[in-house]
Design brief:
Layout lengths: L14 E13 L3 E8 L2 E8 L5 H9 L5 E10 L7 E12 L17 H6 L1 H4 L3 H23 L3 E2 L5 E2 L10 E5 L2 E5 L4 H8 L5 E9 L12 E10 L3 H22 L1 H6 L15 E3 H11 L14 H11 L3 E4 L23 E5 L2 E8 L4 H10 L8 H4 L9 E7 H8 L21
Parallel strand pairs: 3-5, 6-10, 12-13
Antiparallel strand pairs: 1-2, 1-4, 2-3, 4-5, 7-9, 8-9, 10-11, 11-16, 13-14, 14-15, 15-16
Helix pairs in contact: 4-6, 8-9
Bound molecules: aspartyl-adenosine-5'-monophosphate.
Length: 434
């Protein structure tokens, strides 16, 4: 619509045409108000019944909630109106009438179960708090892209249909690819490494990853958005610097650009941009600190993976984002490089938010012989990965990288209880549609 004015831009003294949804109609007898909502906010439309054309009043007040309408009229200042202005309509057009039986209430007065909300995401995103989450998500992703460009990275897109998995054999979704077995990719891991060895050198990707995990938890999805980095001539320390920069850039952009959305979510006062350097704890220190909290029934010993309660106890103890470095080699994937001075110790790291893990990464094994040995030690057939390993024969520089869960970033940034709040159409054990 060429001559359409957004509600937030309607200025007193102008005659405008606004378009949007009927949020609410309040009929007070002689006077009635229709609240029209669009992507920028809401505006009040005033119907002074005895001073207006009957048909106009009937159309404006007879329309069902959530119908799409356009209203043309003069904008006037009105301090009592929710936004300080109101429109006196000259015409109202019903563009798309809504069924009066709505599956959920976009005005938010009646709460709906998460499953009802996800089944009716279009209506759900008409609620300003839900819209705010996705505006913030978009801002964070835009800031992350811009930050990657500032630090010399090239955006890549790698295949999501692959012949083999990388993150452990049990978590793959098999598909049929022209009569041949194939899988949905769990991670761009191998492809991003191959590009670190090309003259692109420093690459990033923001795209879907597919995990056939049995977990049905508030922080696992079966399709998630992974923000991946890989850099040639980087070690694990530099890779940690890059992810720290990316996370801080996302928080800064949200603080700067999304004050209204934060207000809508009730976070305006408590939202904090992390300023300090993220502490780097070794795995050994991490298990000592977890054991010292006394929160676990059984003490952790070297080689244990960190249980969720352990992560929680440590998160409360540290209180900020922090890294766990120098993991035991045996619990990190084959592509992670070990420390030269101690083969039991890997260069793998995780970035943690006090509530949960956000990132895994590390320096990669770039030496051909060691890489092939690593496949065998993890029970993987190196022949199945020949497309990957063979490139390590032709000049593969040392490189490092990481993967950051996009939904977990948004979830922890906004204190959301359920990861499904941070994705439009979640894929989980129960949900394949919409
Ligand atoms: P990892 O498997 O630890 O590492 O995944 C990296 C990050 O992605 C997010 N994530 C998920 N988020 C929601 N639901 C899931 N099922 C899920 N799985 C993963 C998490 C996690 O920290 N190739 C390595 C990364 C690398 O070394 O570069 C990898 O995929 O936030």
């Amino acid at each position: 619509m060429q001559d359409r004015t957004y509600t937030a831009e309607a200025e007193p003294g102008e005659t405008v045409t606004v378009a949007g949804w009927v949020h609410e109609v309040r009929d007070l007898g002689g006077i009635a108000f229709l609240i029209l909502r669009d992507t920028t906010g809401q505006i009040q439309v005033k119907f002074q019944k005895d001073e207006m054309d009957e048909d106009l009043v009937e159309t404006g007040l007879g329309v069902s909630r959530e119908s799409v309408i356009t209203v043309t009229g003069a904008v006037e200042e009105e301090p009592r109106a929710p936004t300080g202005v109101e429109i006196t309509p000259e015409s109202v057009e019903v563009v798309a009438a809504a069924d009066p039986e709505l599956p959920l209430d976009p005005s938010g007065k009646v709460d709906a179960e998460i499953s009802t909300r996800l089944d009716n995401r279009t209506l759900d995103l008409r609620k300003e708090e839900v819209q705010a989450i996705f505006e913030i998500r978009a801002e964070a992703l835009a800031a992350i892209r811009a930050h990657f460009r500032e630090v010399g990275c090239t955006e890549i897109n790698t295949p999501k249909i692959v012949a083999t998995g990388t993150e452990g054999g049990t978590e793959l979704f098999p598909i049929t690819y022209f009569g041949q077995e194939a899988f949905m990719n769990q991670s761009p891991q191998l492809f991003k490494q191959l590009m670190a060895g090309s003259s692109l050198e420093r690459v990033f990707e923001i795209g879907p990853i597919f995990r056939a995990e049995e977990h049905n938890t508030p922080r696992h999805l079966n399709e998630a958005t992974s923000i991946d980095f890989e850099g040639a001539f980087c070690d694990h320390q530099e890779a940690m610097d890059v992810v720290e920069g990316v996370v801080k850039a996302a928080y800064e952009a949200v603080a700067e650009e999304c004050s209204e959305e934060l207000e809508t979510l009730g976070l305006a006062d408590e939202f904090e941009v992390p300023e300090e350097a993220f502490p780097r704890l070794s795995y050994e220190e991490a298990i000592e600190r977890i054991n010292a909290t006394g929160e676990l029934e059984e003490q952790l010993v070297w080689g244990d993976d960190l249980p969720t309660e352990g992560e929680k106890a440590l998160g409360e103890d540290v209180g900020t984002h922090y890294f766990i470095t120098d993991w035991p080699s045996e619990i990190k994937p084959f592509y992670i490089m070990d420390h030269e001075e101690d083969e039991q110790l890997s260069t793998g790291f995780d970035l943690m938010h006090p509530r949960m893990e956000l990132v895994s990464g590390g320096q990669r094994e770039h030496r051909y012989e060691e890489l092939v040995d690593g496949f065998e030690q993890q029970g993987l057939d190196p022949d199945a990965f020949e497309y990957y390993t063979k490139m390590f024969k032709y000049g593969m520089p040392p490189h490092a990288g990481w993967g950051l869960g996009g939904e977990r970033l948004v979830m922890t940034m906004l204190g959301l209880e359920n990861i499904r709040e941070a994705v439009l159409f979640p894929r989980d054990r129960q949900r394949l549609s919409p």
